[in-house]
Structure formats: C-alpha cells, structure tokens
Amino acid sequence: MTSHRYEFKARDLLRLLAPPLVPVALFAILLHAGAALRLLPPPHPALDVDRTVLTHQVEASRQTHDAEILLLGDSSCLMDVDAHQLGQLLGRRVLNLGTLSFLDLNAHAALLRQYLAANPKRVRLIVVLLHPAALRRVGPEAWHVNFLDALLNQEDFHWGTGFHARLADALALDLFRSRIGGRLVPSPLPGNYGRFYGFSDDLERYLTAHDGSAVDPDVPAFSGSPEYRLAAQLEGPSRNFRALVPAGVTLLAGLTPVPTHFAGTRHAATRDTLLRQWAQWLDADCALTQLPATLSDDLFARTTHLNEAGARRFTEALAQCLRDQLAANRRIGD
Fold it and tell me: Is the pTM of this model over 0.85?
C-alpha cells in the first residue's frame, strides 16, 4: 500500500535550487569579470609560509629600491643573512631576494631580471648564495616554478587539475582567496613559524623590516647527506644567470655553511672545489672562499639553515668579504 507519492518536475527543482545558486553564480561571474578587466587588485596569495615568502620577494623585486647590493639564492640565502644588518655593517643599502630551495637559478634569474628592469643602473654588487645541497639538485619543483611564474606575470595560479580544483576555479573561490581574502584575512602560520612570526602578514612585515631576510625558528634537526657534488644540469642556468648581469656590476658566488659535526673533516676542501667550479660556470668575478664552510652545531636551526645567532655570525663574515671586494673595486676604479 502506498501512503505517499511525490512528483517533481524540472521547474520545481529549479525553483528550489535557484535562490542559493544565483548569488553564487553572480559572485563567480563578477570576480572573473573583475579579474579579466583588471578591476581587482593583483594576486597576493600570502596563505602559508612558502607562498608568503614568494609573494613578498616577487613584489619586492618589482618595486623601486635604492639597494647597491643584491642578494639572490635559495632559502639559505633567505635565512642565513640578515640584509638589514649587512647594510648597517657596510654602510650601503642591501636587498635580499632569496627564495626557496625548491627553485633554481632560472627562478633567481627571473627575479633579477624584474628587479633590474624596475631599478636600472642602481646595483653595483650581486651576490648569489646557495647551500651546498643545492648544487646537486637536478631540477626545481614544478609546483613552485609554476606558482612563481604566475606571481611574476600577475596571473591567478591554478592549484590543481582534478574535479574539485576545476570547480573551485569555476566558482572563483581560489581567485577570491588570492586577490581579496589573502589581503584582508591573514593566515595563521603553523608550528614554530606561528610562534615566532604569528600570521602571514607578520611574516611579510618581518621580511620588509629586514630588507628581505627571514629567520628559521625551527628547533635543531640535522638530516640529509653531506656528500655534496656539482650537478651538470647547473651549468646552463649558471651561464644564463650571468648573461643578465649588467656590464660594470660585480658578480660574486658563495656557499652557505653546514654544521661542523654533520659536514665531516673534508668538507672545507670539497666546498672550495665545488665553489670554484660553479663560479667558473657563473663567470663570477670572485668565489667567496673566505666565507666559513662550517659553523658550530648550536648556530643551526637545521642542516640547511642557521638560527638567528648563526645568521648574525655569518652576516658579519659576509660583510668582511664584501668590504674587501668593494675596496678592491674602488682601487680598480681609481
């Protein structure tokens, strides 16, 4: 025996779904149209540590700046040198455009190209700093490369290719997060980064106040292999990087230190050999072999990053190297 029967027609279903769907569709249409017509602010996807760092460094690279010394490199360049302290020690403006170890010299070259376009004839000295582990990487991570390219081109980054990603794209959810939400609502950072910095906007402010440098707040943890080598794949990007350096600008190459007990007794000699070969590929004016190859374990947050005290120590060593180089440049100019 049938107690109830329900009959729905298409128009009944449409009448039920239309009220909530129409505002969602209008929201998506307006956001997509605003982005296409450049009525929305450009993407600013400062949503976690990596994306906040890359967003800040890309935006810094396109702004007018009076830096005479430019630092470029991986996350050890970002974390191991305090550009603000370095500028005070040298009496010159310094800007750190260090990024992440997931990127390569082609990415650093893209930042250099953008900075030179925005600041012609300002830079006198370019310092490229990498961790020794970066020399053996055969290539960057595609996700980070694509994300950086989208930032450089001021385009919205598409987070994935699956159904949920396509739906989020269609509904303009990621577009909203990237262009509006990321600016209005800071993201809490995880773990020790959250305890040290707080939110994504706090990290951005720290980077700005320290001329592009950051601090790794993690507790010491040493892992990986100290068997460093020079990957052949690095030669081409090194030569391409050199081609961007303007005439009259000095290019220096350096490697950041590793923990003493992790590195082993032969690391200093290995570091010098690798650095000189890499400097040849870069056609660098000088390989910074005077920089310490190792520092004591208590100065590190992890194998690849110094802690705050270690960064101060390494910054002082770098300042002495650059002071000598600047003095030599003055003598040549005279």
Answer: yes
